[in-house]
Design a protein that fits this description.
globular, alpha+beta, 6 strands, two-stranded antiparallel sheet, 9 helices, four-stranded antiparallel beta sheet, 256 residues, 45% helix, single chain
């Protein structure tokens, strides 16, 4: 029985309170089994949406006990849909071991993929063989130009209280990238928790480079890609630096 229904449970935090073993007349499956599958779906969806997560974070996010979360994590780990890693520590590391986080594997992500990965890879392999790798780059740039135009138009409709990176995250999420932003000391981090073309980008990393260049144009600053799902990271992360405003950019009341 598949435990995931792509995106159907994103942001769903309702708690199932009835765990009685009652057999479903339609499917002949005990409801407790269906409930377990649904909860594992919520666990995987939460990791997809929020990125690598600790058991405590998942328990709080989903309104479940740590013991219940760990039981479902054990099943997902055994199925090969999750792996456990030490959380990366940026800056000064405190005492003690870093917290353990759970990350979706390719098998876990594959349930969410909507792209025809194998066909896309085969098509680009053929294009690269017939016309060279530059042809793949031109294809990626042409495809990205269409998305870039759409993102720019969508960003213009986001409220003025949002930063450009936050506005781009909204546009990316509408394309299935489950994007969000995090503050950093010198800017923001644009995080894409899902990549519909990760398997294609793994074979053709130029796709990620073309996307990064488009982000720079959309945001008006030079951005830096820190991590990608295609290279095995849990989240595609792009650093967006703060823009230093000059006095000519400021309103009269903001000028010193």
């Amino acid at each position: 029985m598949p435990y995931l229904n792509p995106f159907a449970e994103l942001r769903h935090t309702g708690v199932v309170k009835n765990n009685q073993r009652v057999t479903s007349s339609a499917a002949g499956v005990p409801q407790s089994v269906e409930t377990d599958a649904s909860t594992r779906q919520r666990v995987a969806s939460s990791i997809l949406e929020h990125g690598p997560s600790t058991a405590a974070e998942l328990a709080e996010r989903l309104g479940l006990t740590p013991a219940a979360i760990r039981r479902h994590l054990d099943v997902l780990l055994a199925a090969g849909h999750l792996v456990a890693r030490e959380r990366r520590v940026y800056g000064t590391r405190g005492r003690g071991r870093p917290a353990k986080v759970f990350v979706l594997t390719d098998a876990g992500r594959s349930v969410f993929y909507t792209a025809y990965d194998d066909m896309a890879v085969d098509a680009l392999e053929f294009l690269a063989t017939a016309s060279g790798e530059d042809a793949v780059t031109r294809f990626a740039e042409t495809r990205m130009a269409q998305s870039e135009k759409r993102y720019r138009e969508r960003m213009a409709t986001v409220g003025t209280d949002a930063t450009p990176a936050q506005a781009l995250a909204v546009a990316l999420s509408e394309d299935g990238y489950v994007a969000s932003t995090l503050p950093s000391a010198i800017g923001e981090q644009l995080c894409q928790h899902h990549c519909p073309v990760a398997h294609v980008a793994e074979r053709f990393p130029k796709i990620c480079e073309v996307e990064t260049a488009a982000f720079s144009r959309l945001l008006g600053v030079h951005v830096q890609r820190l991590a990608t799902i295609a290279h095995g990271d849990g989240v595609c992360t792009t650093h967006v630096p703060h823009v230093r405003r000059t006095t000519t950019d400021m309103t009269t009341s903001e000028r010193p």
